[in-house]
């Protein structure tokens, strides 16, 4: 009886959690994505579906984000357009993320013009994809930076050829102010930020760096202020794009003996 009551309680709690839905026709990639997201986004109920038509069963749920896999299809493909329309009808309050095998600028722009809040290429590292989803869940927008044919911001080099996210458009004066602030991160703050980049919670960061959780929280507050970030995910994305490369090359396992 106790097990039945416990299971019933857990089911009832899950029904009140915000929902993220993965729509992927292929079982193996869908299951892999599902397992990763359930581990990384445990504050959400993660549901997986083979087609958008299954969204009908979520009408009474608080669906916050729908991740739609389109594989090799183009954004303008009629079937993709139909899927967008169905998602908008079934989950009008949900943001839409697209998982695509393409990452060219015209495809990205076409997706954003259709209201997509998050564009994920299958060539992205998993930690960047998760960071992008977290950004969207707190109200941001994630899209790869253009890698060719676009005006580049001065003194900015994307850390990899596929690009990361441009969370917000900022003017030149604000960009330069952020660059200076991020470059002013202390060595301790850089180590904490490196752990944030891995998606670690405060408790694990504290254990790895031999700090108290309150000290970790203090460092994160300082980092967010210096990065002009609204949350830790945005801070990581800005740090990846703007902190000088030599500041990121911290020796693995380097000991930290003093608090900052």
From TrEMBL:
GO terms for molecular function: DNA binding. GO terms for biological process: regulation of DNA-templated transcription. Keywords: DNA-binding. It comes from the Bacteria. CDD domains: LuxR_C_like. Residues 178-243 form the HTH luxR-type domain. The keyword DNA-binding applies. SMART domains: HTH_LUXR. The keyword DNA-binding applies. Transmembrane segments: none annotated. InterPro entries: Sig_transdc_resp-reg_C-effctor (IPR016032), Tscrpt_reg_LuxR_C (IPR000792), WalR-like (IPR039420). This is Response regulator transcription factor. It comes from Bradyrhizobium septentrionale. The lineage of its organism: Bacteria, Pseudomonadati, Pseudomonadota, Alphaproteobacteria, Hyphomicrobiales.
């Amino acid at each position: 009886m106790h097990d039945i009551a416990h299971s019933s309680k857990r089911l009832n709690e899950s029904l009140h959690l915000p929902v993220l839905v993965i729509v992927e026709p292929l079982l193996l990639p869908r299951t892999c994505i599902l397992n990763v997201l359930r581990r990384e986004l445990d504050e959400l109920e993660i549901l997986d579906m083979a087609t958008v038509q299954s969204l009908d069963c979520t009408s009474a749920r608080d669906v916050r984000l729908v991740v739609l896999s389109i594989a090799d299809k183009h954004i303008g493909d009629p079937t993709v357009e139909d899927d967008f329309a169905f998602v908008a009808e079934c989950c009008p309050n949900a943001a839409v993320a697209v998982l695509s095998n393409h990452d060219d600028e015209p495809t990205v722009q076409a997706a954003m013009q259709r209201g997509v809040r998050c564009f994920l290429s299958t060539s992205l590292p998993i930690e960047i994809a998760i960071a992008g989803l977290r950004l969207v869940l707190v109200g941001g927008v994630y899209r790869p930076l253009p890698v060719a044919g676009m005006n580049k911001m001065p003194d900015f080099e994307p850390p990899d050829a596929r690009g990361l996210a441009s969370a917000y458009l900022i003017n030149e004066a604000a960009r330069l102010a952020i660059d200076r602030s991020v470059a002013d991160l202390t060595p301790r703050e850089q180590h904490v930020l490196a752990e944030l980049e891995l998606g670690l919670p405060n408790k694990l960061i504290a254990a790895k760096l031999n700090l108290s959780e309150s000290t970790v929280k203090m460092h994160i507050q300082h980092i967010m202020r210096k990065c002009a970030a609204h949350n830790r995910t945005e801070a990581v994305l800005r740090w990846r794009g703007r902190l000088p490369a030599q500041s990121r090359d911290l020796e693995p396992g380097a000991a930290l003996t003093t608090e900052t």
